[in-house]
Amino acid sequence: MLQFKENQAKEFENVVSQTHQSVEILSDRVLGQVVSYSDQWFADATNLLKPTAPVRDATRFTHAGAWYDGWETRRHNTEEYDWVIFKAGVHAARIIGCEVDTAFFNGNHAPAISVQALRHEDAASAPSDISEKDVRWTDVIEKVECGPSQRHFFLREALTDDHYNYFKLKMYPDGGIARFRLYGKVVAPEQAAASAKPIDLCSIANGAVAIAVSDQHFGSANNLIMPGRGHDMSDGWETSRSRTPGHVDWAIIRLGKLTSYIDRIIVDTAHFRGNFPQFIKVEGIAVDGTTAAPHHDDPKWTTLVDKSKAGPDKEHEYKIDKVLQITHVKLTIIPDGGVKRIRVFAT
């Protein structure tokens, strides 16, 4: 198990997103959910999945005690550990690593954690049918120590093709955790991969991941592949204001599958009303047998949507209707601004 310190957050994020091309699979943004838990006396387990950074209000108290923006259990747990079971927001994923944030938990933080996983494909059963004592649970993050009020990053050394859709966070023996981030390479459902009907191959649910970006000062490029149209500007991709003539920003996304026919592309500027890009351009490229991101200035990029005027708070739909094989798309915004989502409907 490789561990990264709090001051190595950027290094960890680069390894996860660029080297392993993986994404967060439990967040509220991808519709991950809490299935069950052992205890949440002081603070709800659902807080673990919030996409926002934790906050603290030391003046706030509830009936249970001091208010915390995280998951906190009672003292004096008589069992070995407290636990939470989650269902991934994606079909399944190969696990790369995780982040455990104990922000503001000092003196009541979790001393140690581990993570287990299982794969359950019975669509007829409810998530609540997954038991804490299920014999299929297997370790994906071994037991590791945690310190107070800090971010902890853990990266698996032995990566396998095994993929899972349910996960159990174990906290030894009790205490508090503010946020839990689990990162993996998404495995799309087989019916999506084999479908003759165009599906969104630029969706996180179908294995897409943003792997390179020129700038993401106000919002991550991975927001471009999230489900839905979001709730405000915070869950889109937004760059700094440029001051240089001829400036452009760009984001490169690896599609979930190789395309054979591209039906249409949608670029959504939902909630970006005074800061949408003036123009957009979409290009595609096929990269064979490598996980490295194609260079943004590679001459092999093929134009899918030529430079087009963009507008505020709307879905811009472009009919492509081409037989074309690509593995990646590049969205270019001119000169800068914010975009909520990009969709590439293809087979």
TrEMBL record:
Q: What Gene3D superfamilies does the entry give?
A: Galactose-binding domain-like
Residues in domain Allantoicase?
Answer: 32-186, 207-346
Highest taxon above the source species: Eukaryota
Its pathway?
A: Nitrogen metabolism; (S)-allantoin degradation; (S)-ureidoglycolate from allantoate (aminidohydrolase route): step 1/1
Enzyme Commission identifier(s): 3.5.3.4
- Keyword line: Hydrolase, Purine metabolism
Matching InterPro entries, A to Z? Allantoicase, Allantoicase_dom, Galactose-bd-like_sf
Q: Does the keyword Cell inner membrane apply?
A: no
Instruction: Give yes or no: UniProt keyword Cytoplasm.
Output: no
Extract the PANTHER family matched here: ALLANTOICASE, INACTIVE ALLANTOICASE-RELATED
Can you tell me which family this protein belongs to?
Belongs to the allantoicase family.
Q: What does this protein do?
A: Utilization of purines as secondary nitrogen sources, when primary sources are limiting.
Name of protein = allantoicase
The organism's taxonomy opens as: Eukaryota, Fungi, Dikarya, Ascomycota, Saccharomycotina
What is the primary gene name for this protein? DAL2
